[in-house]
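dude i think i finally got it to work??
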Amino acid sequence: MQTTPRRKDRTLAPADAERLFDTAEYAFLSLVSDDEYPYSVPVNFAKVGKTVYIHGAPQGRKIAMVSANPHAQLAVVARAQVVPEEFSTNYESAIAFGKIFVCADESEKLRGLRAIAAKYCRHLPLESENFIKSAIARTAVFRFEIEGISGKRRGAAAQ
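look at this
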């Protein structure tokens, strides 16, 4: 698992890379596919310590791949801004490597869904709790365990 960016002058400290997972709106989850092609899908997520919770359908390609091979990657991009006159982009990005599992325990599913709701619907705590209770039986929750992380930045995006 390679976690060191090629451009050392743009490398973020691990704590700064991890911080991007606390603030980014969405991530791209990449899984090992069964047909020799990578599979990547945008996801909503919430990070709690070194664990990232993701929700999804309890059936389908994503859950089948997670069940077959737990190796995964999450990538986020924050504050990207194209700079046409420089033929470049100012940005911060981070990639986390690890393993992903389907949460089987209902208390862990609740913990994950509540973390996601707190991130995206903080101003609707009662409504979030009611929605979680009505949706938990038909929702899968995935637990991504961060094993390694790296990040990069370029230009004014870091300000």
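The mean pLDDT is 90.
im so relieved honestly
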